[in-house]
Write a structure and sequence with these properties.
0% strand; single chain; 9 helices
């Protein structure tokens, strides 16, 4: 997962969550600046301070993504699973978990998360591509090629 992909998904999550509340969150804007500057530890410290008062799915996702870029995958999974507990149907959380499980080489956990993404039109291409990559890692080349071609067609 690249920084751009992660940020796009975080913005999608913000748009979903902002439909529930219309308040502009300056703290998350500052966290975004630190994220793009590559100051992941400072961003994480900042988001930790604001999450003491307000633990939402959005703050858990930010923590998970920041830990991912710090290469601390176990903490990334921990916070993203907390976010998934809040909203088990959230596609953004499923995407992040799938990417982290794939990075950790937990293919058996990544593939079901990618499969869940194919039910959503916004994440279908990423889901099909992820399934293809998982199958490629498991040396299931023909099946992998079918999923990768399907993702290319979208």
């Amino acid at each position: 997962m690249t920084k751009k992909e992660a940020y796009i998904v975080l913005i999608n999550l913000k748009n979903v969550e902002s439909s529930r509340k219309s308040k502009l969150d300056v703290h998350l804007i500052w966290t975004s600046f630190l994220f793009w500057a590559g100051k992941y530890e400072r961003a994480l410290n900042y988001i930790q301070k604001i999450s003491e008062k307000n633990n939402t799915i959005e703050t858990y996702c930010w923590k998970g993504v920041l830990y991912y870029f710090l290469k601390d995958y176990s903490n990334a999974v921990y916070f993203l699973e907390k976010a998934e507990d809040i909203n088990p149907k959230c596609m953004e959380v499923k995407y992040f978990l799938a990417e982290i499980f794939f990075a950790m080489a937990y293919i058996e956990k990544a593939e079901p998360k990618y499969r869940a993404l194919t039910g959503n039109s916004s994440y279908k291409t990423w889901g099909l591509y992820g399934i293809g990559c998982c199958m490629l890692k498991e040396n299931r080349h023909y099946e992998s090629l079918a999923f990768l071609n399907k993702s290319l067609s979208l």
